[in-house]
Amino acid sequence: MNAPAKTEDFAIKIPDGVYAETVLSVEHYTDHLFRFRMTRPAGFRFRSGEFAMIGLMVGEKPIYRAYSIASPAWDEELEFFSIKVPDGPLTSHLQAIKPGDTVLMRKKPTGTLVLDALTPGRRLYMFSTGTGIAPFASLIRDPDTYEKFEEVILTHTCRDVAELKYGFDLVDEIRNHEFLNEIVGDKLKHYATVTREDYPFQGRITTLIENGKLFADLGVPALDPEIDRGMICGSSAMLKDTKELLEKAGLTEGANNKPAEFVIERAFVG
Length: 270
Ligand SMILES: Cc1cc2nc3c(=O)[nH]c(=O)nc-3n(C[C@H](O)[C@H](O)[C@H](O)COP(=O)(O)OP(=O)(O)OC[C@H]3O[C@@H](n4cnc5c(N)ncnc54)[C@H](O)[C@@H]3O)c2cc1C
Prior knowledge:
single chain; 6-stranded antiparallel β-sheet; 11 strands; globular
């Protein structure tokens, strides 16, 4: 494994349209998951929920992958929540980064998991599996989300309990944050489930929507297109199944140029 490069190692090679940022902190959650924070370029603007292409110089060549920006638009730093794919072209190197290392980022963020792509509603569901929680880590820390919605429900489903920790840390961070805690109040509900271990809340989110347990556990009525809005981020199969359930409930899919009742984004290609 090559050690990630420092900026001075390749300063003259950084291509146009790319920022070279400094890693500030790294936290490993499991053998498969970690988060890191890095400096935010002065001119870099994005909407909470968007993704950017981030990369590393591996040998002479940069390798880029799409990454949801997990920090909110107001944050002075950038945060990412990452998988570690064994032998993954990017993450086999990215998982070794340390404070002081350089991470590349292409200048133009994009994405559909943005508040602008939804029509007004009262309750916003964010359905995520695995690293699909990343765009919602941004949105649940953005005051705009709570200005637009009376209730925000973040669901996060993983195989094992240890994989849920990032989500619990996020909610704790909000609770301990002077201003955010006041803005969020009791509007945010975090619903975490696992599929492969004993845990009070178990099962795929699609099963829990279908059998109504999600709504019973949360004490909310079933999905209603007049009131509810949705954002989905997970594997291709999870997106397809969840999308079908939302459509069955009468919600229609929106996009940046055509806001509607729910939006989706793949958490990875595969
Ligand atoms: C819009 C978008 C946003 C993304 N945001 C994130 C993010 O915030 N965090 C993140 O870790 N990844 C994210 N990804 C996936 C990311 O782009 C890379 O695929 C991932 O970093 C692995 O890169 P790699 O080069 O090591 O392996 P790759 O060659 O890219 O992937 C190898 C295989 O690993 C599996 N895989 C890849 N990523 C994941 C994942 N996140 N969860 C489970 N299995 C995976 C897939 O089966 C894939 O075929 C996103 C992808 C897209 C399309």
